[in-house]
Every structure is written in structure tokens, then in C-alpha cells.
Specification:
By secondary structure, the chain is mainly α. The protein is 82% helix and 0% strand.
Length: 142
């Protein structure tokens, strides 16, 4: 009887060890899968940030060009002050005044960053300096 009990205990311990090993393997696979999902989400976040900042850069270039044109129109108008009537009539004053007054203003998009800050997903980014720059960007815009 003792021999059977010893065999049973060995068998039970073996079963327990196998179950524990199976659970550990399942947990490791789950951790790998979760890390892979985090990496994929980080890639998407970085892509969205890049797209938003690229669009902001393009919008800023347009606003700068509009403002430069406004400055040039202002200089042209200032140079016309005191000139003779014929020279002034050769200019299209209403167009110059429109370009001078219709300057652009820069309102950058920050939807991606706002979403990251509000959802807490900014913590998914591994690059600490990028996280700090994104926090500073929001503060500096205000």
C-alpha cells in the first residue's frame, strides 16, 4: 500500500509541476504578445505625431509666406507715399492693401498630442526626451 501511495504522490507532484510549467509558459507568451501590442501601438503613435507635425510645418510655411507677402506689400505702399500721381496710379493699391492686411495666423493642430495626454498613452513612448518635448510643446503653445 505504501508503494502505491508513494507512486501516487510522485505522479501528483509531476502533474503539479507540469501544470505550473504550463501556466508559466502561458504567462510568458501573454507577456510577449502584450509587449508586441505595445510596440505596434507605439509605432502608430509615432506615425501620427510625425504626420501632425509635418502638417503643422507645412501650415507654418504657408503662414510665413503670407506674412512675407504682406510685409512686401506694406513696403511697396510705404515707398509710394509722396510719389507722383502717375506712379501711384500704375499700382494696384487695393490689391496691395488686401495683401498687406490679410496676413495669416498659425494655429497648429495638436489633436494627437492632446489625445495622448488625456488617454495616458504618452507613457507608451520609450523615448524620454521625446515625451519631455511633447509636454513642453503643449506648454509652449499656451
Amino acid at each position: 500500500m505504501e508503494n502505491k501511495t508513494g507512486k501516487y504522490f510522485k505522479y501528483a507532484i509531476g502533474e503539479i509541476v507540469l501544470v505550473v510549467i504550463g501556466i508559466l509558459i502561458a504567462l510568458q507568451i501573454n507577456n510577449w504578445n502584450q509587449e508586441r501590442q505595445f510596440q505596434n501601438e507605439e509605432k502608430i503613435i509615432l506615425k501620427n505625431i510625425h504626420t501632425e507635425f509635418s502638417e503643422n510645418r507645412n501650415a507654418l510655411k504657408l503662414v510665413l509666406e503670407e506674412n512675407n507677402q504682406g510685409c512686401k506689400a506694406s513696403i511697396t505702399l510705404l515707398n509710394l507715399v509722396g510719389q507722383n500721381r502717375e506712379l501711384i496710379q500704375q499700382q494696384n493699391l487695393d490689391s496691395l492693401m488686401y495683401v498687406m492686411l490679410e496676413t495669416g495666423s498659425f494655429r497648429p493642430s495638436q489633436n494627437t498630442i492632446s489625445d495622448l495626454l488625456q488617454s495616458g498613452k504618452l507613457q507608451l513612448l520609450k523615448n524620454e526626451s521625446l515625451k519631455n518635448l511633447l509636454y513642453k510643446w503643449t506648454r509652449n503653445l499656451k
